[in-house]
User: Which sequence fits this backbone?
């Protein structure tokens, strides 16, 4: 597939300069067969059409909502967009919000590995001022509880919280996984739990497939063992 510039050169050299095909071939280093093909069908140049996003017509409205209330939750924005006719998903909206929500200095949120690690390290130490946290993460539901967990709870809960807050701040998941030494599936599960059930589901204990203490067959076996005479097992009592 030739570029539009190459096709224009072929047409110019052939029609205006009256160059023979052999000379065009040597000059442009394009085979004579290809040159003939494009001379016979100049419309062969493929025009790339940029892909449109369902959110594109609503980006102005999103920007106005964020400007009026920077702490407006993503789901509230989604509800308002639904009324305007938006039919896309919340993930598309969330990704766009991460881009347009900027730090107080006006720079885009930390995209580099070094900046991401520094922010997460400061978060663990409790070294980020509250006003900065409010500015960056004011749209996050149950923010106070999440922030308190980072510095006060055990590492497993801390990792879940950092994963969620880092995502909401626009930090790449790969940076989060590297910092916390967790895999992508684990990070995705944390974010999914929080999205669908808040902190209750994020920090809740996950039930195992089958608990031994509630298994009926195990209960019956234990009962039988406790109430069987010793002779059943070859034990003779002596008095």
Assistant:
């Amino acid at each position: 597939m030739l570029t539009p510039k190459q096709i224009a050169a072929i047409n110019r050299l052939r029609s205006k300069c009256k160059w023979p095909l052999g000379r065009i071939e040597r000059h442009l280093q394009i085979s004579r067969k290809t040159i003939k093909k494009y001379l016979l069908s100049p419309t062969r140049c493929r025009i790339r059409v940029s892909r449109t996003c369902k959110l594109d017509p609503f980006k102005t409205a999103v920007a106005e909502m964020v400007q009026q209330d920077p702490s407006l939750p993503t789901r509230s924005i989604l509800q308002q967009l639904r009324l305007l006719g938006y039919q896309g998903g919340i993930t598309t909206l969330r990704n766009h919000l991460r881009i347009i929500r900027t730090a107080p200095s006006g720079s885009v949120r930390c995209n580099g590995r070094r900046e991401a690690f520094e922010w997460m390290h400061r978060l663990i130490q409790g070294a980020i001022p509250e006003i900065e946290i409010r500015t960056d993460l004011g749209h996050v539901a149950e923010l106070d509880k999440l922030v308190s967990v980072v510095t006060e709870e055990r590492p497993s809960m801390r990792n879940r919280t950092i994963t969620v807050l880092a995502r909401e701040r626009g930090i790449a998941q790969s940076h989060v996984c590297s910092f916390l030494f967790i895999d992508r599936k684990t990070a995705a599960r944390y974010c999914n739990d929080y999205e669908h059930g808040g902190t209750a589901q994020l920090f809740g204990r996950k039930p195992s497939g089958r608990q031994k203490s509630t298994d009926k067959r195990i209960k019956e076996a234990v009962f039988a063992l406790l109430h069987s005479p010793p002779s059943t097992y070859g034990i003779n009592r002596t008095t």
